[in-house]
Amino acid sequence: QVQLVESGGGLVQAGGSLSVSCTASGRAFSGYVMGWFRQAPGKEREFVARISLSAGSTSYADFVKGRFTISGDNAKNAVYLQMNSLKPEDTAVYYCALGRRTSSTSIIFNYWGQGTQVTVSS
Fold first, then answer.
1. Which of 2, 43, 44, 116 suits a disulfide with 6, CB 3.0-4.6 Å?
2. Which helix (H) or strand (E) element contains residue 69?
3. pLDDT (tens digit, 9 = 90+) per residue, 47-85?
4. How far apart are alpha carbons 108 and 97 in whole angstroms?
5. C-alpha distances in angstroms, 7 versus 16, 18, 31, 119?
6. Of 76, 108, 91, 102, nearest in space to 14 by CA
7. Which of residues 93 and 55 earns the better pLDDT score?
8. Half-sphere exposure for 98 (CA within 13 Å, toward CB)
9. What is the β-pairing status of strands 116-121 and 10-13?
10. How far, in Å, CA of 24 to CA of 80, rounded?
């Protein structure tokens, strides 16, 4: 059974930094993509960043470019998100996700973590 376990997050003042981590277990994940999504109260879940575990290629949502950095450890099936210059609007539950690319333009995330709270105070 695939499990995603997140850690990190917490409370920080605007302009500060936080990091979140996620480790996947339960099977081999060669060729998989790991990513981060977030959901703020009253809003839909949105994509934040993703990384190909084997290729190391990354992609970011426009609203985090230059502030957040995603990295991965293929050997540990782990993904990390370093969040700098945090803003109050970054406050959300951050979810780790694991999936596979199904086409040149599509990735399906089948597995999700339980979420970790990130709160940025103004």
1. 116
2. strand 68-73
3. 999 999 888 899 999 999 999 999 999 888 899 999 999
4. 10
5. 18, 11, 23, 14
6. 91
7. 93
8. 27
9. parallel
10. 12
